Please model this.
Amino acid sequence: MIERPLYTDKIISYADTPFVKILTGVRRCGKSTILKMLMKELQNRGIEEHRIIYYNFDSLEHEDIKTSRALFTELKKRLSQDAKTYLFLDEIQEVKSWEKVVNSLMMDYNVDIYVTGSNSRMMSSEISTYLTGRYVSFRIYPLSFSEYLTFRKTHTEISDVHTELVSYLRLGGFPALHLQSYTYDDAYTIVRDIYNSTIFTDIVKRNQIRKVDQLERIVRFVFDNTGRTFSAYSISKYLKSENRSIDNETVYSYLAKLENAYIIHRCSRYDIQGKEILKTQEKFYLADPAFRYSVLGYSPDSVAGMLENLVYLELRRRGYDVYVGKLDNMEIDFIATKQEHKLYIQVTQQIGSQKTEQREYGRLLDIRDNYPKYVLRTDAFADGNYEGIITMHIADFLLSDKY
Model:
């Protein structure tokens, strides 16, 4: 196993505290492996192996454990009688009312509990009801650019990081793709399997959706418009142009289900002058760029949007709340906030003219505060800042520890 200290260091610091540790994220982003890393760390700390119990509820081995009563009965008989038991429950959302069981165990037994799930209903009102004040959540993402480079180094020589960014953009960050070398075709076959299992298990089957073709057309629209603002009406209008009628509420429902399965992330707009979050013309970003390329194929005109996608995901990994900025009639790609910190960011594939340069930098110059401002790009540029705006290659930004 290749270590992922970005997550394990943070999670293990809560070991032996009275909190359930909840790990959520898109399927195959590495949650199960992180659980096993945590189990190994506990063993290194001297915890006997028989006190560390692991269940994967996606496995046929535990297919009969589908109710809270069955789960409680199974776990109770595995608990140590004279010392703390460490329970690792993988893809726990497959068990109905699991949160009641976890709550009961935390209250009445000497346990430390870690759970994972691939659906945001893991954080639903039911959990809040039964586990109020008794859980901490950790969002797990596919590999960051830094983690991707670490994985790559185990089986091949890597080139300079600017060149590696191209491969990372095309292949994305699902860990399974980077344990050995794959062609793009082979990699996208793996990602399509992840996509299909998520769509049909976490969305279609769970929500009993009958119009699967309608859902897939919405997915394709969102994937094709990554990095562009649009509304439910835009999707509805697009589908009507294809002689497929759908109302706005149904579109919103489908988008919410895609969010719940962590396939897409909603990025709301923020009015810089009015200091308020706007409810219209949002952007959506993908859990991983490889989703787009595995479903729609590669096209050069998709690169700009996917570069934005990489920056968005990195900001989220680092704990920022991320918005699209609105300043009069202009758009700022990202406003990222974390406690007292704030960043303004423009992302551009290249600046080929003075007019483009004035547009990208001018938007940031119109913001009258002293928070850091960045223009991120992938073309060649002269070193130095532009009237206080930091210019960086996107690869360098993704690897930087300065923000």
Q: What stands out?
A: The two ends are 29 Å apart (CA to CA). The chain has 15 helices and twelve strands.
